Amino acid sequence: MAHATIDPFGMVRGTNSLLQSIVGENGGKVYGEYAIIGLKNYPSNLSNNPRGYENAGERSPFMVGFNIPSWKILDVCALEFERFPSYSPDNYFATVINGLPLPNARNSGQQYDSSTYVPRWNWSLYMKKRLAKKFSVVCQMGRDHQRWEMNPSQPVFYDFEAAMVKPDEWGWHVMGVFNF
Question: Any idea where the domains of the chain sit in the sequence?
Answer without folding.
Answer: 2-178
